[in-house]
Amino acid sequence: MSGYHAKKRLGQNFLINDQMIERIIAEFVDSPDLPVVEIGAGRGALTLPIAKTGRPIIAVEFDRDLIPYLEKLMRSYPNCKIISDDFLVFDPALHELTEYNLIGNLPYNITSPVIDWLISRRQSIESALFMVQKEMAHRICSRHGSKGWGPLAIITQLFYTSELLFDVPPEDFRPSPDVVSTVIRLIRKPEPDICHFDLFDRLIRTSFRQRRKTLVNNLVPDFFGTANEAVEILNKLDLTGKSRAEEISTSTFLNLTELIHLATL
Predict the structure, then answer these.
(1) How far apart are CA 160 and CA 85, in angstroms?
(2) Which domains are seen in the chain, by residue range?
(3) Quick one: CA dihedral 108, 184, 253, 210, positive or negative?
(4) CA–CA separation, 159 and 197 (whole Å)
(5) Which regions of 7-137 does DSSP assign to beta strands (E)?
(6) How far apart are CA 132 and CA 30, in angstroms?
(7) Does residue 6 register a pLDDT over 70?
(8) What count of other Cβ atoms lies within 10 Å of the Cβ of residue 44?
(9) Model pTM?
């Protein structure tokens, strides 16, 4: 695509390694009858091979300068629709999408918002295959007790299994980014039975507000009037006043949510 230069402000790094493209597409084989929504079509590196399979695909691209190129590239594929839009305001219902999968090479600054978008529409999204910065990938897929454990991993893994697949080196992109990327896969779980999700979500985010602090210091006064009150509740879950959020599993946070709810009745 001559005459076009990647826009740094949009975090554009275009995948150019054909072997890596094939490897990514090979991981994206679940439910072949379901439509695909692509986040950021770029120069069509993933769009074109998906369209060649005959699978319905809606490619959402924010950069208007890329739209004429994409439309020309995909003109022989009636199963592909190019949408010029900000993905974060994209409305699947307007395109009669009720069940679909996601794929995308996500810039760092929109990875967390895209995960939030995914979670809010999880009833319709069976799976997602994302390429993200390696550091972000390990945060999404981390386990409790690890450095990356936090709200992003907890909320994501509550609804989706998360799997690190493989790294993508900087030289596979143009321009080459300064960091390694990682491909991850998310597959929807059965909907968990959570009675107080808003409380759980607020508890998680408050617990990790200042990672160096103990859980007690983060939760007082938002959830408990005093440290003694907090410790009394934590002790019921075999936690102590010295426990820190990164040590605590999702199931324990769910139990803590229920105890906090009961304490307010």
Answers:
(1) 26
(2) 8-188 (3.40.50.150), 197-263 (1.10.8.100)
(3) negative
(4) 12
(5) 14-15, 36-39, 57-61, 80-84, 100-105, 125-133
(6) 20
(7) no
(8) 23
(9) 0.92
